[in-house]
Amino acid sequence: MQELAVLASIVAALSVGVISPGPSFVMVARVAVASSRIRALATALGMGAGGALFGAAALLGLQSVLLAVPALYAVLKVLGGLYLCYLGFLIFRSARQPLALVAGGGEDGSRPLRAFWLGFSTQVSNPKTSIVYASVFAAFLPSSFSVAFAAALLAAVFVVESAWYALVAILFSSAGPQRAYLSYKSWVDRAAGAVMFGLGLKLVTSAAKP
Question: Where, by residue number, does the polypeptide cross the bilayer (predicted)?
Fold first, then answer.
């Protein structure tokens, strides 16, 4: 019963952080309006897998390693930030490229695995997320816990992340948002690309801060 209460507290704390807009939200929303619902949902599952990976890393003590070796943390932030900048550049560059959506909302509904990895790589590109997970875990986790509890916690992290981004995917892949996207594609892509690039640049510059 105590472990269940702890699990509920962690899920509640992480849920607040998950719904905060960031690179992951931008990516899922953009895939949803520009592609198919299937690919957007696959991207959402990739976000969930990335969150579960960070959760596992936090349980294994990644926070201690990053705090003990600041240079490693800085390198990870630079690499992750550059990757986000690269994604932002690709989105911005595609602003003028024509796009035809098929009935049902999507390009062709193919390549869900590629969309999954896009979501996963976007999620894990920000090492700050691992610190957030570690901080939440440190605040709520008991000094000792069972393997079953750890497995349940990682499963809960996956569900929370995937469920939120699946909701984003469903909302943005509906007919209304997709029609609006087609009407203002160049502006939407430029804005999304600029936001993604800005978030990446912010992550890179933060690496220089103590």
Answer: 6-28, 40-65, 71-92, 131-157, 163-182
